[in-house]
Design a protein that fits this description.
Strands 1, 2, 3, 4, 5, 6 and 7 form a 7-stranded antiparallel sheet that branches. The chain is built from 8 helices and 7 strands. The chain has helices at residues 2-15, 26-31, 38-41, 47-64, 74-87, 104-114, 129-141, 194-197, and strands at 21-22, 119-122, 146-150, 164-171, 175-179, 186-190, 205-208. By secondary structure, the protein is α+β, with helices and mostly antiparallel strands.
Length: 210
């Protein structure tokens, strides 16, 4: 019930804005796959693979309204995360719940190596922040959630003084809206505070089956 209320509040907060976009179906798909959140699986350092799993299940949902039912159960959802680590990339597994985390570069390679037909593209970190923000908005307009990294020093980082990966699922004229894979809650980052919140110049990762 708590997760449903959070999702409704997130939608209302966004809908109150006069400009922007929220990705159709993302919040709903998350509400049905809450077993994946790190707080439930106990994999405290798995924000990258967990964000990837949420995006994968969003696309399963969009493709036909279906996704693996087991991700609603925390115990069985652990298998989803464990497989992502086991598959790894370049033919090498990643140690489960590695304390150094899994970077967006590694997530990109995991998709390229293990998900036939899927696309994983990372924005050029050498671009300006304003350029990548413009591109990110275009992708969100077209229905693509994006993976980004939060700085450990960002005061509103959901996990405190650790780098953290989240999913951007919407924006308006003053904010980016994100889904936190640790607690499963929703938050926003002010556009005028992006440089203090986001790692680099918003080098987002876009993952999709096309």
């Amino acid at each position: 019930m708590k997760k449903i209320i959070i999702a409704i509040v997130a939608f209302i907060l966004f809908s109150s804005q006069s400009e922007g976009r929220i990705i159709d179906g993302y919040v709903h798909s998350v509400g049905l796959t809450n077993g994946l959140i790190q707080y439930e699986t106990g994999y405290n350092y798995s924000c990258g693979p967990t964000s990837l799993a949420f995006i994968e299940n969003f696309w399963y949902y969009k493709s036909g309204g279906h996704y693996p039912t087991k991700v609603s159960d925390p115990q069985l959802a652990k298998e989803v995360i464990e497989k992502l680590y086991s598959d790894g990339y370049n033919g090498v597994s990643i140690p489960l719940n590695r304390s150094s985390g899994v970077s967006t570069d590694e997530l990109k390679q995991m998709v390229i190596d293990n998900k036939s037909g899927w696309v994983a593209v990372k924005a050029n970190g050498n671009n300006s922040l304003s350029h990548n923000l413009s591109l990110a908005r275009q992708w969100i307009d077209n229905g693509y959630p994006l993976i980004v990294g939060l700085k450990a020093s960002y005061p509103s980082n959901p996990v405190g003084n650790f780098g953290h990966i989240v999913v951007i699922y919407g924006y308006d004229y003053g904010n980016l809206y994100y889904h936190d894979p640790y607690y499963g809650e929703y938050g926003k980052i002010r556009i005028d505070n992006l440089s203090s919140a986001i790692q680099g110049n918003l080098p987002y990762l876009r993952v999709a089956p096309h």
